[in-house]
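Allow me, if you will, to draw on your knowledge of protein folds for a short while. The matter concerns a single protein, recorded as an amino acid sequence and a row of backbone structure tokens. Kindly check, if you would, that the fold set down in the tokens agrees with what the sequence suggests. You will find the record immediately after this paragraph.
***
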Amino acid sequence: MARRIALFRDRRAAGERLVPLLRSLGLNAPIVYGLLRGGAAVAAPVAEALRAPLQPFLVRKLGVPWQPELAFGALAEGEDQPVLNHGIVRAFGLDAEAITRVQAEQAQELARRQAVYLRGRSRPDPRGRAAILVDDGLATGASARAALRALRRQGAAPLVLAIPVAPQDSIDELAPEADRIVCAEICPIPRGIGGCYEDFHQLDDDEVLALLQAGRGEATP
């Protein structure tokens, strides 16, 4: 069987595909939020093109203990309680003790990342402003759901989710959480999000910080 050609060269190319779709919305003075880590690289060209501030948004996926890539929920920055996928919780028989243990581990990593990415950063108030939440793709949607709900509680309006690639069923499930979902490629992702990219390397802290600094006009140390 012939190897399927990747949809995007890298995350920046994916973000560039989103730009004309987002421009067509005519949003007034939006804030662009990159869902860390990978979403920051997709969000960077979006923020540049829209002349909008680039802000990080932190969410930690809560993975099934023996299958950590499968999310049963997610914990967003500024939130005490996670957003849970109760179907996965029931299907895998996760009890309160297991959920609490995973949540505590991820809350610790969330706090570490907040210290790295948010320290000394002045963040705009999203109340009454258009917010564009950007990620590098949509699989279960756990992280995006948690982030959208957190931004909604902060008063962002309208709230737009922008993703380069997602299957239709994932978009449909998240539709109630956003005022608009913008997706460049709506298609099945049998090889996962990473299979849609030629370069899908995991961004490290230095790469993310460089993107965020460029997004607010700072020189990279």
